[in-house]
Amino acid sequence: MAPHLNTSAARRTPAAKPSTADKLLLAAGELMIARNSPDVSLSEIAQQSGVNAALVKYHFGNKDGLLLALLARDAATEMTHLDYLMAQPITPTAKLKLHIAGIIKAYHRSPYMNRLIHYLLHESSPEAADEVSKFFIRPLLDFHRRLLAEGVAAGEFRDVDPVLFYTSLIGACDHLFSGRNAMARANDVGPVTDEVCRDYVAHVEAMTLGGMLITKRIVNRE
User: Fold this and answer.
1) What is the rounded CA–CA span in Å between residue 116 and residue 165?
2) Which structural domain range is residue 189 located in?
3) What pLDDT, on the 0 to 100 scale, is given for residue 18?
4) Nearest 5°: phi and psi at 85?
5) Which one of 53, 70, 73, 85 is at 20 to 30 Å from 106 when CA atoms are compared?
């Protein structure tokens, strides 16, 4: 069955019992965080939420529809932040620093986000993949294009391909969370705490800006 692609399902009118939909979304997110994977079943989601599994079809169509609605809910918040950030009267470098911190904090709140994106893009239906591209990938890539162009025009950034930038930045931000289990086994590291998150923000900021900023050379004339 193809997923029901009504991404506004979590915002239904009171007659459609939005509290039930919210419980299902919350349960799905909690299970994916605990499992470190989007591989959760409807019965597990229902048990976690205390809601009858049959209500998933009523609100979302099927499990993929529920996961799509969860991602759409989270993405809507992040896309609003991007629009606000782009409109701020600050330098492109300052915007990029805030953007890096925002991505990592978003993954800290919802560490399942990038794996859920990959699942819906590659293991779900073509309709779900199109929806994810429309409400998440394209807006984020467009933000990167605009920010990079603004930085080049201001003389702050070197010219960087937006697709390569998106790939490297999103991959770096996500891997702190998606690769944590592997790092724990290889190097005995602990969970991602607020302190680890802050340290990683500073690290990715230094790595990214180190490769992007145009340094102005001062030539000493004698």
Assistant:
1) 21
2) 67-212
3) 45
4) -65, -45
5) 53
Structure tokens at 122: 């590659």
Q: Which of 51, 72, 58 is nearest to 134 (CA)?
A: 72
Q: Which residue has the tokens 């890096």?
A: 100
In terms of pTM, does the model score above 0.85?
no
- Residue 113: its pLDDT value, please? 85
- Please state the domain count of the chain: 1
Asked whether the CA dihedral 116, 117, 122, 128 is positive or negative, the reply is positive
Q: Does residue 114 lie in a domain region? A: yes
How far, in Å, CA of 179 to CA of 173, rounded? 11
Distance separating alpha carbons of residues 164 and 65, to the nearest angstrom: 30
Q: How far is CA 131 from CA 8, 66, 107, 135, 216, in A?
A: 12, 13, 20, 6, 43
Q: How many residues does the chain have?
A: 222
Positions of the chain with pLDDT under 70: 1-18, 179-190, 216-222
